[in-house]
Specification:
The complex is a heterodimer.
Chain A (H helix, E strand, L loop, with lengths): L5 H36 L19 H10 L4 H33 L5 H13 L2 H14 L6 H5 L6 H14 L2 H9 L4 H12 L1 H17 L2 H6 L8 H10 L7 H22 L1 H12 L2
Helix pairs in contact in A: 1-13, 2-13, 3-7, 3-10, 3-12, 4-7, 7-10, 10-14, 12-13
Chain B lengths: L23 H29 L2 E5 L6 E5 L3 H7 L2 H33 L6 H9 L6 H12 L7 H4 L10 H26 L4 H8 L4 H29 L3 H6 L12 H9 L4 H28 L4
Antiparallel strand pairs in B: 1-2
Helix pairs in contact in B: 1-12, 2-12, 3-7, 3-9, 4-7, 5-7, 7-9, 9-12, 11-12
Amino acid sequence: MSAPAAPAVRASILSRAGATLVLLMFTVYFLVPLWWLFVGATKNQGQFAGGNALWFDHFQFGTNISKLMSYNDGIFWRWMLNSIAYTVGAAALGTLFAGMCGYALAKYRFPGRETLFNIVLGGVLVPATALALPLFLIFSKFHAANTFWAVFIPSLVNPFGVYLARVYAAASVPEDLLEAARIDGSGEVRTFFTISSRLMAPAFVTIFLFHFVAVWNNFLLPLIMLGNEKLFPVTLGLYAWNSQVDQRPELRGLVLVGALVSILPMIVAFIFLQRFWRSGLGTGSIK
Amino acid sequence: MNPTVAVGAPDSPPRTRSTRTRHGTAVLIFVVPFGLLFALFYAIPIGYAVVQSLYVVKRTGTFGPAHQVFGGLAQYQRVFSDSPFWHSVARVLLFGVVQVPVMLGLALLLALILDSGLIRGKRFYRLAFFLPYAVPGVVAAIMWGYLYSPNLSPFTAVTSNVDLLSADLVLWAMANVVTWVYVGYNMLIIYSALLAIPTDIYEAARLDGAGQFRVAWSIKIPLVLPAIVLTTVFSVIGTLQLLAEPQVFRSFSSAVSSTYTPNLTVYSTSSVPNFNLAAAFSVVLAVATFILSFSILKFTQRRGIQ
């Protein structure tokens, strides 16, 4: 934009203002519900619907939190811990397995490679819900349906992670480097863990983040699998509370406070991991 | 797993130097953990669902013990004559035809504005738009359910005049929840694809006198079409699987029945319990999803987009 003429400057100011206005409008749309939830969770439970819904009033966040903590012997915290256990474990192991498989698909030739890759790609398109019911039937056969593992183990499988890892490994791990490692006497598995995995780190972070969100948000599988509320992830727990609000009105406020507490860790994580989302997504888009 | 993302079509794998299998043991170590889990918890369940869908439950006498017998396509006959199920399919298709273009159009618009160089504070906006993706569908539905309910909502000016949870509007109330959660996520994918475009292309266009809109329309959008196609496919899969939102909304609105979406039908049928019929429903749903997402991919390939 060097030496623009006067009309161009005016147009540019107008388009700047227009663009900013659109973005501000959408910022309000995206953030106001979250702000309402935050303010509502700090209010006296009888009042969250009255008064100014978008500003603080009888601030008692601490009281609300301790109510949430003590309700039903602190079941809410158990749900939070369950969610963390399901999610962190499944995302970490799932990323490792998907990363190794995608790496092998990109860097080695072996019989059945194409078939394996196509089956995995097909797996990306399988609706998760088509899996939940048969998984429940199979786990029931082994009397394992209402257990931690019935939710944890199926959550390990991440076909899309394999696809991402393959694309990224093909682009970022040079063949010459692998040859050099071989000449130096490094075994293939050791090369993967010491050299290739470092080159693939951005892809691993992206796969981990997507997998983490997917498992954290998973609703149908625990809904079908679990009957014991001590095993619930927080999403299912809040859903269960919300469905009982008509019989137990005291839960109404707790659902709101619980909803806020359940998303806080993710929001903090999103703010701190922002740059990884971008860098990782970028890798997917460059072929 | 939820439909996750990225962009780029499956391309043919790069050729490595050797044509025979080398490092067989290493390949096994890399592939077996995922392969085994995939076989046990993806492939076998799908096969098992197909098998289950071919059985019917028979009782000897009225009160005799139930046992499964092979019933051929009997369950599929029931699926195809089950009108609430097909109503629910039509409902999610209507939902998708409206909600997916609106959501992706917004995502594209916001991505283009962020990429236009016209605004300050890109990082802030990117984060603000993306934050709703941190909210699980169930929690988002509960939150919006409160915001919609006339006696709970802070926005009484709206909710006392328009019943957002009525039979006519509740589908679109849910569409708003889904849009709110996923616009930022789709925007980020499209935005990442925009960032990958080499900037010298813009220089050339600018020298030719092309303005912002012209650059966006003639250069940026065509170049990010593969990203848009992929987000479309994943959004369509997501729409057909709609479950958490309607399931939660059942406690806010009596207009949401237990067969409101295909997935809700599967869930309600399996809690009857009629597993064989539920299995047939999920097989039909999976096949329909497959056909739909493949046709989108094929259609766009034929048009030369990918």
